[in-house]
């Protein structure tokens, strides 16, 4: 379901895209209690640099480029703070690759032209930060919780079917739906890259800034 600004996912759709262990992890992390929520709103576009966002950024002492229509050129740490201030979350890696992107692709295949502008922005112009932090190339941190993961140590392609329940590929191949950039350093913030393959990039730390990197608002109901 959609409205002018958001795509709406009901609780059943979110549960189908997540495991019970993952939902427990997110609850303990203080991210969201999916089993009790009524749904999830995901903004159609990268967060717009409107007056309410500017006011929130000013309150948090986050400097935004006044000339940008969208909130880009922001690091992951400030992106998380800003989204939280306006009542939302960044999407996690699993919610991005297990729920949101498959929804967009499925809707486009069904002839829903409404999603085309979202996909165009994601593939042609903007990357976006995700909630996940990867520490020591082996630990996922969301909120107050950590989970030991075995991450593939080389770049390559993966399909949605290759993802584990935390949203990371368990194998890499020579072709596939998405491209994976493995973590090179010991503190990494995951982001969805902007090219036509909607890459999962684990290449930069949370303080990294790029003119293409923005944030998308997600709200649990």
Question: What is the fold's blueprint, element by element?
Answer:
Layout: E1 6-10, H1 11-16, H2 20-29, E2 39-43, H3 51-60, H4 76-85, H5 93-109, H6 116-124, E3 127-135, E4 139-142, E5 145-148, E6 156-158, E7 178-181, E8 187-192, E9 200-201, E10 213-214, E11 218-220
Parallel strand pairs: 3-10, 7-9
Antiparallel strand pairs: 1-2, 2-11, 3-4, 3-8, 4-5, 6-7, 8-9
The profile of the biggest β sheet is: 8 strands, mixed
Calculate the terminal CA-CA distance, rounded to whole Å. 14 Å
Low-confidence stretches: none
Shape: globular
Q: Helical proportion?
A: 25-40%
Mean pLDDT: 95
Give Rg in angstroms.
Answer: 16 Å
Instruction: Please report the total strand number as a whole number.
Output: 11
The amount of beta strand, in percent, is 15-25%
How would you spell out the order of helices and strands?
A: EHHEHHHHEEEEEEEEE
Q: Oligomer, anyone?
A: single chain
Number of helices: 6
Structural class, judged by helices and strands? Answer: alpha+beta
Annotation keywords:
221 residues; alpha+beta; 8-stranded mixed β-sheet; 3-stranded antiparallel β-sheet; globular
Please, could you describe this protein's structure?
There is one protein chain. With 221 residues, the chain is an alpha+beta fold. The chain contains six helices and eleven strands. Strands 3, 4, 5, 6, 7, 8, 9 and 10 form an eight-stranded mixed β-sheet that branches. It has a three-stranded antiparallel β-sheet with strand order 1-2-11. 37% of the residues are buried.
């Amino acid at each position: 379901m959609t409205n002018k600004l958001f795509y709406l996912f009901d609780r059943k759709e979110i549960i189908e895209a997540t495991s019970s262990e993952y939902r427990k992890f997110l609850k303990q992390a203080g991210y969201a209690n999916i089993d009790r929520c009524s749904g999830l709103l995901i903004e159609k576009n990268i967060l717009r640099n409107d007056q309410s966002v500017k006011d929130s950024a000013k309150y948090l002492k986050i400097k935004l480029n006044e000339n940008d229509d969208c909130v880009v050129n922001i690091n992951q740490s400030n992106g998380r703070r800003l989204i939280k201030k306006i009542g939302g979350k960044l999407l996690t890696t699993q919610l991005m690759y297990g729920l949101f992107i498959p929804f967009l692709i499925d809707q486009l295949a069904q002839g829903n032209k409404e999603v085309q502008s979202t996909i165009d922005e994601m593939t042609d112009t903007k990357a976006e930060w995700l909630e996940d932090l990867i520490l020591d190339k082996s630990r996922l941190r969301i909120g107050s919780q950590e989970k030991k993961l075995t991450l593939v140590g080389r770049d390559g392609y993966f399909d949605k079917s290759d993802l584990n329940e935390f949203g990371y590929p368990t194998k890499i191949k020579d072709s596939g739906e998405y491209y994976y950039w493995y973590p090179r350093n010991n503190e990494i913030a995951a982001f969805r890259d902007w090219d036509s393959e909607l890459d999962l990039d684990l290449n930069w730390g949370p303080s990294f800034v790029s003119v293409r990197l923005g944030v998308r608002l997600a709200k649990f109901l």
